[in-house]
Design a protein that fits this description.
The chain has helices at about 5-20, 20-50, 55-80, 85-110, 115-130, 130-140, 150-175, 180-195, 215-230, 235-265, 270-290, 300-320, 325-340, 340-355, 360-385, 390-430. It starts with a helix and ends with a helix. The chain has about 425 residues and is mostly helical.
Length: about 425
């Protein structure tokens, strides 16, 4: 097959994906809400850091957003596997809009302090934790299996475009209307996102109730999810380990970026918005490559993730000594490009190997391990920046990311062995 034929086939796959009405509505809704998220991410972190002057208190926002899915995520998966995914996403969007509106309203009335802000962030995260698994378990219901990598890349593109546009606009809005008022706009985007999900047609099979005791049934369902990952499909453990190690450094960097911009690069809110946009520009380039590329075998994806971790680690180390905003923007874009390689590959691999009635549980359990490492990364990075220096935090991120690349390469032989074992089981099942 010639390169021209390959490109034509890839374009046809991409065109077929966008012809799907459900995909189009889902993409538009996510694009709008992710743009709002991009606005509020910079605004919320800047608001807390400007209020307290503490990197650790600022990264506490990220920690509070991580605790609910870490603690309650598996149970959320049990519930999501039994209810319509479309309805779940609409309710979550509407509730998040209401909670975000409370932050600037309370501030205007003089009733908002740091601790009440933490409470609102935590409660919002309680609802938000279910959105990712709901979205990830919806996608296999509306596209074909060979389109899973593409739709996950398309999903990532909404986050990327939103984070590209949102932070740049957010910096200007912070300077004009105040950081807290930017959250009104984010709340509005969640409402529009909920409206975009109304036309979705997502199949929902009502699960049979096997027990008259709800708690007993929930524990059985939870055990079924654990058994699937840790006993029946141990290849998923490899994916969880790789993703968790990668996020240990990359998530810390996201929450450290305002501190690096303000304290090391001496940037104002507008410039920090552009630096954040550089991160999203790198992710966008990777996303477009993933959308147009033929799906790779699982263990080949692991090789690519190892290379991405190497790029992120090297760029982070160079950023620690960056003398200019322009060079820093380029290095941040490289970090974004490496970070954007992980989620579509891992999500597609999970979706390919999980039964549809287990998808939410699989993603919730997966997110629990992922977020545990994210919380560790955010805590350590914030503590190092406060106790020593933000540059020390950047060097730590670089070293951790390079270490993740080494560990990922070491896991590749295990990946191939487990993959051969899966193929052997399938052949036996067919023969039987």
């Amino acid at each position: 097959m010639t390169k021209t034929q390959q490109a034509s086939g890839q374009f046809a796959t991409w065109r077929a994906l966008l012809k799907n009405r459900n995909v189009r509505w889902l993409w538009v809704g996510q694009l709008i809400s992710q743009t709002g998220e991009g606005l509020s991410k910079v605004a919320l972190l800047w608001f807390v850091y400007d209020l307290t002057g503490s990197a650790l208190k600022m990264t506490t926002i990220g920690i509070l957003q991580t605790i609910p899915p870490l603690v309650f995520g598996p149970l959320a998966g049990v519930v999501l596997d039994r209810i319509p995914k479309r309805l779940a996403m609409i309710v979550i969007d509407v509730v998040r809009a209401g909670l975000l509106t409370l932050i600037p309203l309370l501030y205007m009335m003089g009733l908002l302090n740091l601790y009440s802000l933490y409470v609102l962030v935590f409660v919002t995260a309680m609802f938000s934790m279910a959105f990712g698994p709901a979205l990830s378990s919806t996608e296999p219901l509306i596209v074909k299996e060979q389109q899973l990598t593409q739709i996950n890349a398309l999903d990532q593109s909404t986050m990327t475009i939103g984070q590209l546009i949102g932070p740049a606009i957010s910096g200007m809005l912070i300077a004009t209307i105040g950081a807290q008022n930017v959250l009104f706009i984010n709340a509005g985007t969640f409402l529009v996102s909920a409206l975009c999900k109304l036309p979705l047609e997502v199949p929902h099979k009502v699960a049979s109730i096997r027990s008259t005791h709800p708690m007993k049934q929930a524990l059985k369902d939870l055990k079924e999810g654990f058994t699937f990952i840790f006993v029946k499909h141990r290849l998923l453990i490899v994916l969880m380990a790789i993703s968790s190690l990668f996020t240990l450094g990359s998530t810390g960097f996201v929450y450290l970026l305002p501190v690096i911009g303000k304290e090391v690069l001496l940037a104002d809110p507008v410039h920090i918005g552009w630096l954040w946009a550089s991160l999203s520009a790198g992710i966008l380039l990777t996303t477009m490559w993933l959308i147009m590329t033929k799906p790779l075998p699982l263990c080949h994806r692991v090789w690519v993730i190892a290379a991405a971790a190497t790029v992120v680690g090297t760029a982070a180390l160079l950023l620690a000594g960056s003398p200019s905003l322009l060079l820093a923007a380029g290095l941040i874009a490289l970090i974004g490009a490496g970070s954007g390689m992980v989620n579509p590959f891992v999500s597609a691999s999970l979706q390919e190997r999980s039964p549809k009635d287990l998808l939410a549980r699989v993603f919730s359990l997966f997110n629990t391990g992922y977020l545990a490492f994210a919380m560790i990364g955010m805590t350590v990075v914030g503590w190092l920046a406060d106790t020593y220096d933000p540059i020390v935090s950047m060097v730590t991120i670089g070293v951790v990311s390079l270490g993740a690349a080494v560990v990922t390469v070491a896991m590749i032989p295990w990946c191939y062995r487990l993959q051969r074992g899966e193929k052997g089981k399938k052949r036996l099942a067919v023969a039987g």
